[in-house]
Amino acid sequence: MAIIVNLDVELAKQKMTLTELSEKVGITLSNLSILKTGKARAIRFDTLNTICAVLQCQPGDLLEFRED
Amino acid sequence: MKNKVMSSIVMFGLCVAAVVVVLIGAFLVPLSYETAEANPTIAFMRVPVLIMGWLILACVIALLVVAFLLLLRINKGNIFEQKSVNLLKSMAVISLTPIPVLATLFFYTKANVGGSITNFWVVVGVMASVIVSIFFFLLASLFQKAVDYKNENELTI
Predict the structure, then answer these.
(1) Looking at the complex, does the CB of residue B152 fall below 8 Å from at least one CB of chain A?
(2) CB-CB under 8 Å, B155 with A32
(3) Chain B residues close to A43, C-beta within 8 Å
(4) What is the model's pTM?
(5) How many CB pairs under 8 A join A and B?
(6) Cβ B157–A39 below 8 Å, yes or no?
(7) Is B156 touching A (CB cutoff 8 A)?
(8) Residue B118 above 80 pLDDT?
(9) Is the distance from CB of A9 to CB of A65 less than 8 angstroms?
């Protein structure tokens, strides 16, 4: 897929685990795992908003477009 | 709970239908003997026509078995999954399988018995098979759409 989710990079910057993020944003670990592994088909704006608020980053830090 | 009761009733209905089909299969044997005795000139057709009748009933039994498997999945709550779609598609294909047998029966009867009423019922059988098959194919494509929507919904975080 051309859109890459850099959730692991942002998590590493914040020294946070996926479980901690899951507790803070109120999204299940399995859903966050789907997002992290790039299996997600779409992301809701409110989910993006919550993750950005918790990780103190911009949507552009989380999502990246790469040519196939 | 209501759905479970309903599907249990349908399951019971399927079992009754399967028993009825088996009984019809057993009833075909004495019927074939009676017909052969009443029409000695076409007595040679008894065994081939009997086998064709059993083949058609076997298709019906196979359809009932797949319907039973689908109902089991519905009872477990695994409705909108790819396997349900595959089961519906196989039901559609099974519905089409009696057509070659019916066609053979049609030509066999036409060649040996002039103006037989059997051919009318064979044509009705072919029509019924096609209609049932189209119905199952439609249902399968509808289920496929539902499965796709479900997957997309599940993968939207």
Answers:
(1) yes
(2) no
(3) 156-157
(4) 0.76
(5) 23
(6) no
(7) yes
(8) no
(9) no
Q: Which residues of chain A make contact with B152, given a CB cutoff of 8 A? A: 41-42
Query: Residue range B28-41: average pLDDT?
Result: 89
Does pLDDT of B4 surpass 80?
A: no
Q: Which residues of B touch A30 (CB under 8 A)?
A: none
Residues of chain A neighbouring B156 (CB-CB closer than 8 A): 40-44
ipTM of the complex: 0.74
B1 inside 8 A of chain A by CB: no
Per-residue pLDDT of A28-58, as tens digits, reads 999 899 988 888 889 999 999 999 999 999 9
Backbone angles phi and psi of B156, in degrees to 5: -100, 115
Q: Cβ distance B77 to B49 under 8 Å?
A: no
DSSP one-letter string for chain B:
-HHHHHHHHHHHHHHHHHHHHHHHHHHHHHHHHHHHHH-GGGGGGHHHHHHHHHHHHHHHHHHHHHHHHHHHHHHHT--SSHHHHHHHHHHHHHHHTHHHHHHHHHHHHHHHSTT-THHHHHHHHHHHHHHHHHHHHHHHHHHHHHHHHHHHHHTB-
Kindly report the average pLDDT of chain B as a whole number: 89
Query: Which residues are CB-contacts of B33 (< 8 A; sequence separation ≥ 6)?
Result: B46
- What does the pLDDT average to over B75-86? 88
